[in-house]
Amino acid sequence: MNNPTEYLPRSYHTRVSTYWWLARWAYVKFILREASSVFVAWIVVVTLLQIRALTRGPADYAELQNSLRSPLLLTLNAVSLAFVIFHAVTWFNLAPKAMVIRLRGKRLSSLAIAAPNYVAWVVISAAIAWILLRG
Amino acid sequence: MLFSAGGVVSAMLMPIHVLLFGLAFPLGWVDAPSYEHLLALVRHPLTRVYLFILCSLALFHWAHRFRFTLYDGLQIKHLNELINTFCYGGATLGTAVAAYLLWRIP
Amino acid sequence: MANRITLEVTRYNPAHDEKPRPDTYEVPLRKEWVVLDALNYIKDHLDGSLSFRWSCRMGVCGSCGMMVNGVPKLTCATFLSDYAPGPVRVEPMSHFPVLRDLVVDTSDFLVKLAKSKPWIIRKVEKPLNEEYFQTPEQMDAYKQFSMCINCMLCYAACPVYGLDPLFSGPAAIALAQRYNLDSRDQGASDRLDILSHHEGIWGCTFVGECTQVCPKNVDPAAAIQQYKLTATMEWLKALVLPRGAE
Q1: Could you tell me which CATH number the domain at A1-84 has?
Q2: Which among B27, B41, B55 has CB closest to A44?
Q3: Which domain, by its residues, includes C223?
Q4: In this predicted complex, what is the ipTM?
């Protein structure tokens, strides 16, 4: 409706506010979910810093470990943990929506698809913890 | 596709990594692995591949998601050249750094 | 329960209003009344110039979609008493240009719907005296997505549609998927070419609000994610088998 005529005057286009995502809790949750990606990237940075410190020698590594004990980094990493778990939970819960698997004619329920993901999550996490802690 | 792969990888692996390296070891909840043990682990080619995949996929997952968050959340789509460079460029840079660091482990 | 409730209804007359503004009306609060009843009461007794769309008044035609307290709803299926003591804010559906009062311009949706080719496409027609047989299982594959009444509440709820006017939107994609999954249809690749780009399925960031507001439980978000999976598989197949494996 770009050309107003005598019998069809201009329509009103409401501009979407920059704060559209604050209007409903569902939208806030969505933005938080997307924001978790920032913390995922932060963990990558921490991991790369650790690899670099390992390469440089025990003194560098110890220094990095020390800075990881600072209140600032502890808080940041605690927040990162919360966000990363939020990402994992929302991801596993949404995955069944994309996958329609039919077994003997009946569609597998969301739980049947999400549950193996959670199980894999626990198993893999346990395996990594074991590899790191047995040394 | 990179986004989905990155999403799965970060969902499965990141929590335990942060829990251990970010909280459990610094706070002493469990005994942190020794420098020697970690170095031995990281030297192993499988670990290097694992870390490379983890870092690069997670970074591309971030790049894709963050790009759309900036478009939709902040409505700055007109800056999309800048956003794309920052996001995908950043992810590529991070991947390159990861590859370099993992290659250079003694 | 009180026997009156206040409604704040958006009014906009393009002939002499700069922009939409709310007017307040007090209507009876009857326990079985829906918001549509209140609007009709206003039109019948308080202000005959109020304009709004409605038809079946029973949740099957998709005409009466509006924002009630900021949430897209079918006004014929939204009980007034749920909002007591009020006031209840009734606004035209978000993300569409407002033509007048509560009436919006839906032509954008209709254009996008047509692009999805929401009809059975056959590469090879069957002769007229041969039926298309379909088992209950085959119908089950697409039935949920066929429930769409084109009410556009999902467009009002979708932030991506609000921010990017080129996005195809939930209903258009869900209806494309309804035909893709129909065993009688042979047009999946045509629709894929049209929808598998940034303003088609890839514009969706899976907010999921479309599914939350859908009055017919179509679950357009699921349709779109399934479509993304299909599109990715097709892309991989094309990569690995360039000559195609029809």
Answers
A1: 1.20.1300.10
A2: B55
A3: 107-240
A4: 0.86
